[in-house]
# Entry
Amino acid sequence: MRYHQVVVVGGGLAGLRAALELNKRNVKVAVVSKVHPLRSHSVEAQGGINASLGNHPRGSHDSPELHAFDTVKGSDYLADQKAALRLTEDAPKRVREMEHWGVPFSRTPDGKIAQRPFGGAGFPRTCFASDKTGHVLLHTLFEQCVKYEQASERGEMVIYDEQIVTGLVVDEGVCHGVIVWNFQTGEIDVIKSEAVIFATGGAGRIFGKTTNALVSTGLGMAIPYWGGVPIKDFEFVQFHPTTLFGTNILMTEGARGEGGFLLNNEGERFLANYDDSSKAMEVAPRDIVARNMTREIDEGRGFEDEYLHLDLRHLGREKILERLPGIRDLAMKFVHVDPIEAPIPVQPGMHYTMGGIDTDETGASRVPGFYAAGECGCVSVHGANRLGGNSMLETIVYGAIAGDSAAQFVLDGGSGKVPDEKIFDDAKNRELARLEGMFNGGNENPADIKDELESTMNRKCWVFREENTLQEGIEKIEELRERYKNITLNSSGLRLNFDLLWALELGGNLTMAEVMIKGAARRKESRGSQFRTDYPTRDDAKWLEHTLAYYAQDGPRFEASDVDLSIWEPKERKY
Amino acid sequence: MSEVTFKILRYDPKTDKKPHVEQFKVPTKSGMTVLDGLYYIQEHLDGSLAFRSSCRAGVCGSCAMHINGTYRLACETQISALNSATIKVRPMAHLPVMKDLFVDMDPFWEKFKHIKPYLIPGDEPAEKERLQTTDERAHLDRIIDCILCGACFASCTVNNYDEEYLGPAALLKAQRFFSDSRDAAIEERMDLVDGEHGVWRCHTIFNCQEVCPKEIDITGSIAVLKRNMVANRWSPSLKKQ
Ligand SMILES: Cc1cc2nc3c(=O)[nH]c(=O)nc-3n(C[C@H](O)[C@H](O)[C@H](O)COP(=O)(O)OP(=O)(O)OC[C@H]3O[C@@H](n4cnc5c(N)ncnc54)[C@H](O)[C@@H]3O)c2cc1C
Ligand code: SF4
Ligand code: FES
# Structure
């Protein structure tokens, strides 16, 4: 059994930022990540990160209050307002700190961090490094971790990569560590700790059409959920308007921020025809653009009934090469289109899970010793819809906050409960038995269940939702949940067994899909990213509340919790 | 629906005496990548096949492997673009095979870490951001695109006979910091890339540059690194003579 004061699960932006904060506070930390940190989904983020630096002439009046208001309004008033304000107040400090650590941000003519417009703000607020912002942020954070790893002699900072957390050790409602599957050696082991921080990222792979990495599965949220931590607001899923037709690889919002047009098959900038997007046009918030695109395709004004055009040609070669080189590269490689010469085929795709592991504004959950940060968590700062550029911001702001509060918790003596050593052995043995049990199943191929799950979510829990189709989806997912019990694996042993890994991931996906679709069916209103054709308006009287889902064997048990509305009064969300 | 044959070099050092080639018939469809093909095999034909992947978009650096004659990222290599009925796949060279296409990357990371791959500024940070002109920032274009996939390392012939050679990616990273107006550890890092296993070992063979999926001018950057070291180190003493 290994011991570290704090275990951070996840080597993406949130996990590494939390680890650096713990290190700063002299708390010994181990980062456990199922892929090498640099392979985390964060590396894919393109467009940028928001902070009210005021570096752009059109945004010189910007402030944390304005940024927070835009965030709350963007959230359709479901964000907790003090938490959103904390996000935006810390933003300039955290973004500049990344610059101090070496992030090669693009620059303004006077040498400051450059900012570009993104949806939901009226002027440029999104700091960027061409269209590879996630790549440079993650590489820089990893570099800082290497620095501390090298400087630490007594293991103050250790990174265990290609090790997978499969469960929590929870005893009498207190978290004492994690169960780890060492993928390279096949060992199952326990890491005992005073506190655990989950930074396991989003769960896009519940869907087939998603911009997320293959490793962004529901397992990272399902593990704490199974362990008794509730999941908040999971019905809210952001659909990104512009993903490549075929692979759903993201074409950043920055492409529209830089002036790109969305065109239908008549060559028309159709967003002008819809009330909610006619003013902001291409930089209207994502949920609005994704819905209007879906309508356009459904009404026959798309191409092949599947996609629309993202046209960058008028930006000119130079600007495309300078500001959007990655986008051009991806379009050329994956659809053989050079955006300098032709429009890019795009369609809406699943992009971001607003909901996740329920935490308060310190990153703490309802289970002492258990924290969460980044996309897997839900404070909530994004409410029913997140603004582009706010999620990477959340990873570094709330990653640092969760690190800091876990450090304080440990330095204050932790939960004060000294667990019986036996619980660790028991946990390990139970896990070994469970994993070995997965080899003696029936005759279901997990790949079939995965395909059916993805297409069910694509069809039944998509941009437009409605009672009947949601119920059909629920039935299907309950069926898949049962069939999952009979899966068969055709590869044995625990060492480097991808068959088993994907089967575990599928289990997490099924669990979280059920939480999502049942939450969507339960919430009988339209708010932010959730649009119910049978309940097309927002209903503050009934539904201005967070959804909490607690694990139960026969499906989630739902409760509600209050939204913090202490600063701004909810208004109609109009752009 | 047409079909291709994957010929994969398979090896599990725990159970196999030596590597062997296995064949799999894979149905193809439009837009399908080599990575999609490997997943088809793993999901439908042989669940024991081991390979890495994550982003499936050519940006995370997980999936470099040798495909039909050269190193490529499996996820951004479309089967149709290979124009061949057989797809020959083997793992990266110079890195111990752990299983099939899954290699031990530790030697690669150790070399990366050796050059102190983090900004070492000479001053305390400004209250706001450090300023950097757009011209200074332009020196970092391309060089920061490296995704640390290891393709260059695997392709480099110098690695054949000098296991301790730092390799293209680590040297490129060093040059990345030399090129950064904010970094001040020039002397310190020169010591780290100096020596017989360092920058001088590069024989300008251009293999790395040919395989780099990000089309980075690696060989050119290493040449600049050499030139700067000559200028910084030896020219002053030459001048003294
Ligand atoms: C294509 C794309 C572009 C985006 N662009 C932007 C943008 O421009 N601006 C913006 O603000 N946001 C953007 N986002 C969103 C943003 O990238 C993510 O929300 C953010 O990077 C999530 O970071 P994270 O640290 O929470 O998680 P991740 O980066 O996903 O990291 C999760 C980590 O957890 C580990 N992990 C997961 N499960 C386990 C387990 N069971 N055991 C061990 N380890 C585990 C993984 O190995 C990984 O290291 C984008 C998202 C996508 C999909
Ligand atoms: S330089 Fe190119 S080939 Fe080498 S690791 Fe970086 S991206 Fe890969
Ligand atoms: S899977 Fe990320 S580069 Fe290929």
About this structure: Chain A touches chain B through 61 residues (CB under 8 Å). The radius of gyration of chain A is 23 Å.
